[in-house]
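Hi all, posting the design record for the shared folder.

TITLE: backbone redesign
STEP: 1 of 1
STRUCTURE INPUT:
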């Protein structure tokens, strides 16, 4: 008969699933392990992180896990989350993670994958990134409202990976909100990948240009408008030329009045996803501190975009403006914090 676990324990401890346990090093778990004692209705320390288990302990740990009696402290969340970052599909089976904790893990994992791909844009590295993006879309497909957690975690300092994550979060929220029940899983999968990689070409712009705090010289400035073409070329060489990726890569700097680049597209010549990416990209850039410009606050930034109806699609700027003005995301732009729950009693070892 399965033990009855007091509800308050899950506030301070994770109940480890068999999938999570099997991903740990067999003899040296990276976290402190606790076992639930039904006779005293408390958790009891079982083994310390890094301690070597005997064969008997390995078997006992497995039995406790299968019975639902094996826990790890939430104080070990940094270790626990770093472990899952490298095996991201574990978030789909760990039902004890809170949505905010899952969003943090996705942020860490995808930033890692984007940086790896920027450093080495080759097919094997892309395939690892693709796998993790598909884990994200599976997670969001199960409950599309989860995208709000990502909108609460927008980065306010600029790097290419952080900008990519911000654009992904904002773009997916706009896509999910504007399409509603008409959104297909295939659309979500492709849009997520395209939004994340929309600015890949910027990786080929010399770092000294991107880090300058003074006005660019004409020859330096000329290198910037080439990055959409460079990004599209990189992806095409890898055989990744599906419409959504092409649209985000080539159209995120196009503007409705034809003042954008690189193709000077106008109005309906710009795809729906291209328009969404344009709003998400510009907003993400505006709210992040860059060498040549300080970060703007969220509402003033989107107000500026919403006022520019000649260049940005008002359907999407209005959606974002209304959400931010009404604080639809909670603590938008700041990591979500939760009041620590009172820890349940933990029985001393050996009780």
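Okay, here is what came back for every position:
SEQUENCE:
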């Amino acid at each position: 008969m399965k033990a009855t676990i007091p509800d308050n324990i899950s506030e301070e401890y994770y109940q480890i699933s068999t999938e999570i346990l099997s991903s740990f090093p067999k003899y040296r778990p990276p976290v402190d392990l606790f076992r639930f004692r039904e006779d005293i209705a408390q958790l009891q320390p079982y083994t310390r992180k890094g301690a070597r288990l005997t064969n008997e302990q390995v078997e006992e740990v497995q039995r406790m896990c299968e019975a639902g009696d094996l826990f790890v402290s939430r104080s070990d969340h940094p270790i626990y989350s770093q472990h899952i970052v490298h095996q991201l599909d574990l978030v789909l089976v760990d039902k004890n993670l809170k949505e905010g904790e899952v969003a943090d893990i996705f942020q860490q994992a995808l930033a890692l994958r984007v940086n790896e791909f920027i450093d080495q844009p080759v097919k094997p590295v892309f395939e690892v990134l693709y796998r993790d993006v598909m884990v994200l879309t599976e997670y969001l497909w199960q409950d599309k409202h989860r995208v709000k957690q990502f909108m609460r975690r927008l980065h306010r300092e600029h790097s290419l990976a952080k900008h990519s994550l911000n654009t992904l979060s904002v773009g997916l929220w706009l896509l999910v909100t504007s399409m509603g029940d008409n959104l297909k899983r295939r659309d979500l999968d492709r849009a997520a990948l395209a939004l994340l990689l929309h600015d890949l070409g910027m990786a080929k712009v010399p770092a000294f240009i991107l880090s300058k705090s003074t006005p660019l010289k004409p020859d330096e400035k000329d290198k910037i408008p080439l990055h959409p073409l460079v990004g599209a070329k990189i992806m095409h060489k890898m055989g990744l030329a599906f419409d959504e990726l092409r649209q985000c890569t080539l159209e995120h700097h196009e503007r409705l009045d034809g003042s954008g680049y690189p193709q000077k597209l106008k109005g309906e010549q710009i795809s729906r996803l291209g328009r969404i990416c344009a709003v998400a990209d510009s907003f993400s850039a505006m709210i992040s501190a860059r060498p040549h410009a300080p970060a703007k606050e969220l509402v003033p930034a989107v107000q500026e975009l919403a006022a520019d109806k000649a260049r940005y699609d008002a359907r999407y700027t209005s959606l974002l403006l209304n959400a931010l003005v009404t604080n639809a995301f909670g603590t938008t732009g700041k990591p979500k914090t939760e009041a620590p729950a009172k820890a349940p009693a933990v029985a001393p070892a050996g009780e």
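COMMENT: The chain has a mean pLDDT of 89.
Let me know if anyone wants the other runs.
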